[in-house]
Write a structure and sequence with these properties.
This protein has ten helices and eleven strands. It is an alpha/beta fold and 327 residues long. The strands form two sheets. It has a six-stranded mixed sheet, with helices on both faces. Strands 2-1-3-10-4 form a five-stranded mixed sheet. This is TRAP transporter substrate-binding protein.
């Protein structure tokens, strides 16, 4: 009797092990590479998305968000997702303009200078993005705009002439081109290294959002913020298509639903972040003002030049996109 009881116990234990192994095999784990700090609203949105997927799939798909370029640096994320080194990644679309001009349309100054205009531009851009990314083996899950971009400096500006020779932090082809057009000296620095670059004098001005201003504590190094609302660049969240195709249909649906929710939540949050972060810049002693008339006029000319240059490079695709946006 004792021997039979031991045998039954062994069988039960084996069955539990088998069930555990089966459950482990059923669970899929994904890595999501992100370039911004854990406290940034884009990253917080990604974490919420991952949590939503976990809940909706009953733990079947676990997505780990790797913030602050911990897994891959910002310029490497797109290729990592394309090559399957990470199943998902978040990129700043404008960073990849040199690869394909359409990626950078939301980095053209003053083409879309409000949230409403930015949404309209995204609607015009989205079909092009989906087609290109599909050709590259990826899926566009969702996209969220950053708050509008302004100019941070150590010294006051009356016009663009005051930027001549200034070391200007560039993080995309568009921001580098702006520097060239106003006579500043472009220095490429990604978000994760921005604070250090300011502290060591590598850069002394930039054009970015209030959100990045707070993330990088620009008020510790820079004094003025000119709220030019020049453009609203977008982050896009990409999925490796093979990884997505390997999921069962209910899990795919859960990912797409969580992505749609994250997009809606992200745009709403971005507007709130814009208001909140500008208030934080002021509270930390930064002078926040609209651009003087001469500076605004100078920057509008920069925008006109850059749109013309972009259209020349983007060809018929670019013209169709801008025409659709301006309808």
């Amino acid at each position: 009797m004792k021997r039979r009881s031991l045998a039954l116990s062994s069988l039960a234990a084996a069955a539990l092990v088998a069930l555990g192994t089966s459950a482990a095999q059923a669970q899929t784990k994904w890595d999501l590479a992100a370039a911004y700090p854990a406290t940034n609203f884009h990253t917080e949105n990604l974490v919420q998305f991952a949590s939503d997927v976990d809940k909706a799939t009953g733990g079947k798909l676990k997505i780990t968000v790797h913030a602050n370029a911990a897994l891959f640096k910002a310029p490497e994320i797109k290729r990592a997702v394309q090559g399957g080194q990470a199943q998902m990644g978040e990129i700043l679309l404008a960073n990849f303009q040199n690869e394909w001009q359409i990626f950078g349309v939301d980095g053209i100054p003053f083409l879309a200078d409000s949230y409403d205009a930015s949404r309209k531009l995204y609607a015009a851009q989205k079909p092009f993005l989906e087609k290109k990314l599909a050709e590259q083996g990826m899926i566009l899950l969702y996209s969220v705009a950053w708050p509008p971009q302004g100019i941070y400096t150590k010294k006051p500006l009356a016009s663009a002439a005051d930027l001549k020779g200034v070391k200007w932090r560039a993080y995309s082809p568009a921001t580098a081109r702006i520097a060239e057009l106003v006579g500043a000296q472009p220095v490429t620095v990604q978000a994760a290294e921005f604070s250090q670059a300011l502290a060591t004098g590598v850069v002394e001005s930039t054009m970015t959002s209030g959100a990045t201003g707070v993330d990088s504590k620009l008020f510790e190094h820079l004094k003025f913020y000119y709220d030019t609302q020049a453009w609203l660049p977008k982050n896009a969240v990409l999925i490796n298509k093979k990884a997505f195709d390997a999921l069962d249909k209910p899990t795919q649906d859960a990912v797409l639903k969580a992505g749609a929710d994250a997009e809606a939540r992200g745009w709403t949050t971005s507007q709130k972040v814009n208001t909140d972060t500008i208030a934080k810049l002021k509270a930390n002693g930064m002078e926040v003002t609209p651009p003087p008339a001469a500076l605004k006029a100078d920057m509008a000319k920069v925008g006109d030049t850059m749109l013309k240059e972009w259209l020349d490079k983007a060809g018929p695709e670019g013209k169709a996109l801008v025409d659709n946006f301006r309808k």
